[in-house]
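Supplementary Methods S3. Input chains for the assembly prediction are listed below.
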Amino acid sequence: MIVILKQTATKDDVKRLTKDIESKGLKTSVVVGTEQTIIGIIGDTTLIDPKMYEVDEAVDHVMRVSEPYKLANRQFHPNDSIIQVGDVLVGGGNLAFIAGPCSVESKEQIIEVAKSVKASGANILRGGAFKPRTSPYSFQGMGTEAIDLLLEAKKETGLPICTELMDASYIPLFNEKVDLVQIGTRNMQNYALLKKVGQEVKKPVLLKRGLASTYEEWIMAAEYIMANGNKNVILCERGIRTYETYTRNTLDLQAIPVIKKLTHLPIIIDPSHAGGKWWLVPAMSKASIVAGADGLMIEVHNDPEKALSDGPQSLRPDKYDSLMKDIKKLVKVMADGND
Amino acid sequence: MIVILKQTATKDDVKRLTKDIESKGLKTSVVVGTEQTIIGIIGDTTLIDPKMYEVDEAVDHVMRVSEPYKLANRQFHPNDSIIQVGDVLVGGGNLAFIAGPCSVESKEQIIEVAKSVKASGANILRGGAFKPRTSPYSFQGMGTEAIDLLLEAKKETGLPICTELMDASYIPLFNEKVDLVQIGTRNMQNYALLKKVGQEVKKPVLLKRGLASTYEEWIMAAEYIMANGNKNVILCERGIRTYETYTRNTLDLQAIPVIKKLTHLPIIIDPSHAGGKWWLVPAMSKASIVAGADGLMIEVHNDPEKALSDGPQSLRPDKYDSLMKDIKKLVKVMADGND
Amino acid sequence: MIVILKQTATKDDVKRLTKDIESKGLKTSVVVGTEQTIIGIIGDTTLIDPKMYEVDEAVDHVMRVSEPYKLANRQFHPNDSIIQVGDVLVGGGNLAFIAGPCSVESKEQIIEVAKSVKASGANILRGGAFKPRTSPYSFQGMGTEAIDLLLEAKKETGLPICTELMDASYIPLFNEKVDLVQIGTRNMQNYALLKKVGQEVKKPVLLKRGLASTYEEWIMAAEYIMANGNKNVILCERGIRTYETYTRNTLDLQAIPVIKKLTHLPIIIDPSHAGGKWWLVPAMSKASIVAGADGLMIEVHNDPEKALSDGPQSLRPDKYDSLMKDIKKLVKVMADGND
Amino acid sequence: MIVILKQTATKDDVKRLTKDIESKGLKTSVVVGTEQTIIGIIGDTTLIDPKMYEVDEAVDHVMRVSEPYKLANRQFHPNDSIIQVGDVLVGGGNLAFIAGPCSVESKEQIIEVAKSVKASGANILRGGAFKPRTSPYSFQGMGTEAIDLLLEAKKETGLPICTELMDASYIPLFNEKVDLVQIGTRNMQNYALLKKVGQEVKKPVLLKRGLASTYEEWIMAAEYIMANGNKNVILCERGIRTYETYTRNTLDLQAIPVIKKLTHLPIIIDPSHAGGKWWLVPAMSKASIVAGADGLMIEVHNDPEKALSDGPQSLRPDKYDSLMKDIKKLVKVMADGND
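Predicted C-alpha cells for the full assembly:
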C-alpha cells in the first residue's frame, strides 16, 4: 500500500504517519519526490483499511498495490480449482453445461426439458424455485414444491440440480436436496447471506456477478464465502449494467481471461440473462467457450410463449441441441490445437 | 401496454394475439400502420409481464405506457406522504436531519456525537451496528451491542435512532429498539428481505437506492415493502455507480424532482456515501435542500482519523454545525419565497 | 410513433393533436385506454422529431416503434453489404484481418511489422499517422510522413492500408493514398467530419463505435456518412465505457449479432483497444470470430516496450501468428458446420 | 509515478528499469516489500506515458500519483481564473447567466427571447447556429445566418453572444462575431478541433464535458486548448451518460466542488441538456448555484411546442423569470452568509 502525501505535508507529518503505521507491525519506506512525498507500507496490508489514512490532513490519497483477497487469489494457489457438482467436475478443463427453464412450472415441463437438454449434452439441470422478480405482482416461483419437481427430474435423468437460494432459512433444505446452490446477481453483496452460505452450505456455490459489480467486488464476494468455510465457489458472469438498453445487459466476456488470471476459481457464462434475447445466445455461447469459459448456463424452455418468466431469453430445445453440436465441434478443434 | 408486431405478422397473428389478450379480461385496440401493426392493451396491465408477448414469433417488442407500480404512485395518491419517525415528521415540508457516525464504536463516541449533532439541529441519530463491508476482513460493526449504545444516546438526547437491518432474523430486535429501519443499497433488491420488512417491520423504513438501480427499480423495491403491508417508506438517494471513479459514486440530485413527480414518498439525500469525500458534503447538502429534498443523512464523526469505517467521508462536528447554519438560512429564504 | 397522453388530457387535446399530426401528411389512430389515451402515428415518421410532441402540455411521452435509420437498415436491404478495401472484400462471409502498430514510428518498424503480419495471414495493414491522445504532451503521431511510410510497406507487401482521419482538411490526401479511412471513437459524433466524409471521401470508411454510444447512435453515425453519399461503411466495435476500470473498456460482443440484425453493414472487432491488455486479445479475437464478426483489427508491434503509444495492448508478431493459426482452424470448423 | 513490479521480478529487472528511467533525467527510489517491489519515479513525470513501463515483462502495473495537467491545475495557480466574455466577468464570484433558445429560428424569435431573458437577469445570450443532431434528417441549424441574427439581438440588448463551433473552418467568422465560443459535448475529444481552437480562437471558450468523460479527460481537453495558446476556458457540466434513461443524462453536481479543487477555471452548469425535461431545470439550477457554480446555461424558448429542437427541455420566459428571482435570493443569502 502506498500513502501519497499532500505537497503541504511536513517532515513531522511523515514521522507521525510512519510511526503510526509501524505501530501496527508493518514496515515503511519513504520516497521524497520533487512534488510529493510517498510512504510505502511493507507487510501484510490486507487487514488495513486504506481509508484510515486517507482521512489524515497530511495525506492526499492512498493506493493499494496488491489485491485485497487471499483465498481466491491465483497468486497463492496457481492451479485451477476443480469443483465437484454431484458427480460432474467443473474447472481445470472440465466444462459445465447447465440448462433448464428459468422457472420450474410443472412436473411435465421440468421432466421434458431435463430429458431434452440431457440428450443434447447438458450435464447439470437448472430451474428456478424462488424467483427474484422486480415486481411484487409478478410470479414469484413455485418455491419448495419446485425443488421436489427438480428432484424428480434428477431421478429421471441423473442430472444434478442447480437452483437459487434467496433466503438463509432455506439452507437446510438446500443442503438436503440441491446439488449446486446459486447466489443470484441481486444478492451478490448480501453479506448476511454470503456469511451463512460460507458457514452452513455443504454444497458448491454458483456465485453470479452483481449487476454493476467490479471484478474485485465479485472476487471479494467469493472471498466472503470462502473465508467463512466453503471453498467450492464457481463464478458466473451474466451481463453487467451499462448505458446500452437494447440488450438487457452487456455481456462482459473479457471477464473470462481476467478472472482466470486473478483467481483459480472456475468461471461460467450465462448468455441468456445477459442479452435477454434468445437469438443472442448461440453466438455468445460459442464465443464464451472459445474464450476459455468453464461452462455455460442456458435457459431452455419447451414452450417459451407460455413461460411464466423470461420467455424471450429462452432457447427452444431444438435450438439448444443445434448449439450444443456446434460447441462440441469447437471444443474438439480447441483440444486438437493444444496437442 | 402496446404490442408492436413484426412487419411479417399476418392478420391471423393479430387475431390470435388479441384473442389471447382478451382472454385475460383486457381489451385491445389494433392500429394498422404502413410499416407495422400495433395492438394497444386496455385495462389494468400491472399484472401482465410484457415478456410473455415479446417471445411470440409475430411480435417485435412490447412497450409499457404506464408505470408498473400502484401504491407508491403519486397518480393515485396526489398528496405527499408524511412519515413519522419517533415524534419527528418527515415529508410534506418537514425535513429530516439524520446525522451520526458511520459505525457505532463506543458509548463515549456515540453519546458525544449525538449531543453534538443535536445541538447543531439534527433530529434523528444514525449509527451503524451491522456494516455491509466489501471485505470479509474489515470491521463488520459492533452488532446488537451498538443498538444498545444507540439507545443510551437516545436516552441522553431524545433523538430517535436509525440503523441498518441486513438480516431478517433481527426484525424483532429492530421492532423493539430502532425508530427508523434502514435497508442498505446492497440489499435494495434482496426481495426475501423486502417482503419480510413489509410484513413484519412495525417501524418506518429508510430505503436506499441500489448502487445501479433505475428510478423504476427503486420505486418497485418500495412497492414490495408497501404491498407486503408497511406503507411507511422514506427513499434515500446515495449516489449511483458510473464510469467516474474520482468520487465514490455520482450523486444524482435530479432524483429529487423525479421521485417527487412519480411518487408521494419523501426522499432524502445521503451526500456522505455519494462522494466518499467529506469536503463534497457541504455543497451537496445545500444543493439537495434547495432542490426540494425532504432531508439529509450525513456522517459525522468526532475523530475521523480513528473511525473504524468511512472516515474520509465523515464531517467533524464543527463543520456539521456550520453547514446546518447555512441550511437553516436557505430553508428560511425558500420559505419566504413561497409567501 | 406513439403519443401517450396524460390522464388529464381532454377530448379537445386529442382533436388538436391529431389535427396537427395529420397536417404533416401522416395518419393517426386513437386508442382510448382506461387510464390513458394514446395516438398512433401512421406513415413515414423518420422526419418527425418525437420531442416536438413531448413538449405539449397534454402529452406524457412519445415512443418510437420503428428505427430512425433507413440506408443502414437491414429491413430495406436484407443482404449483407460487401465492402471492397483495395482488392480485399469485407462482409458477407469475407473476413478482414487488419493488423499493425498503434503508431507508425519508422520505415523499418512498419515494413517489418507489415511483412510479419502478412505472413501470418493479415490482409490489411493498419498504422496510426495522426493520433488522438488524451494529453497534449503525448506523442501525436508522425502525421503525413507516416502515411508515406505506410505506402512503402504497401509496396513491399501488397497490403491495402488503413489509418485514422481526424481533420477534414486531409481528405484529399487520404483519397489519394489511404485504402480504408478510419473514423475514431472520439469523432463518432463529430458530425461536421461525418458529413464531409460522406460527401468527399472516395474510399471505404471504418467507423468505430463511440466510447459511450448506443447501437442506435452508432448506426445513425453510419447513416450520416451514407446519407451524404458514401455507402461503404464498415462498423468497428472497440469496447465501451463502463464502471469497470480493470480493463480499459468493456468489449461488447453482443454487438455482433445485434448489428447484423439491425443493419446490413459488416462489423469487425478491435480487441486491442477494448481491453488495453495484450493478454486479453487472443481469447477475445477467437470469441469474435465464432460469434460471427466480419474481421478483426489487432495491434501488433515488433517491440512493444519501445512503442510510442499503446504498447501494453500490442501483440508481438509470434503471438499474432499463433493466434491467426487458431483462428484459421475455427473458421474452418465453422465453415464445415454449415455444410 | 510508481512502478509496481511483479512478484517474479528479479534484482536485474530492478537495475535495468531504474537505469532506463534515470536515462530520461528522472530519479528513482526503490521500495522492497514482502510481496512486491516498487520503484518510485521522482521529477517531472508529465511527459512520461505510464504505458511505456506497463508493457515491461517485469512490471505489474504503473500508477500516477500526481495529475497529468499543468496549466489548468490549481496547484500551480491557486487563485480563481476570471474570464471576460464581452464585458461580462465569469469566475471568482462573478456569475454567468447564459440563456436563450436551443436553436436560432428567426429574427423575431431570437430578439424576443433575448429581451425577455435580459429583463430577467441573463447576462449572455445563447442560440444554436450549427446543431449537432443525432439524425442526418433532423434540422441542422440555420448556420451563418443564425449568427447574424444573434448579432442583431446583441445590438438590441447589449448581451454578448455564445454559440457552438463544430467546424474549424468557421473560426475566422467566430473570431469576428461571437463572444463566447462553445465546444460541444460530442467534440470534447475532437483533438484536431481543440488544437485549432487553442491556436486560432481569440475569444473565450466554453468547453462542455463529454458525454462520458471523466473529470481528468475533461480537464485534459481544457489543457489542450490552453497548451495551444488560449487560456480563457470556462468548463460546463451538462450531464453524463449513465444506465438511467428516465432523464436524458445524469447531472453530476459533485463536479462543481471537484473542478474547483482540481483547477482554477470557472465551471457553469447546463441543467437543460442534463435532464432533457424543463421541469427539472428550476430545482437543478438553484442547486447548482448554492453548490458554488459560476453560472448557468439555460434553454429558454418563447414557444417550446414549435421549437425546431429540444423543445421539451426549454423553459418558457415566465418560468425563467421566476427562477431568476429565486436565484437572486439565494445568491443574496449566500453572500450575507460570508459576512
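Chain C touches chain D through 49 residues (CB under 8 Å). The first helix of chain C runs from residue 11 to 22.
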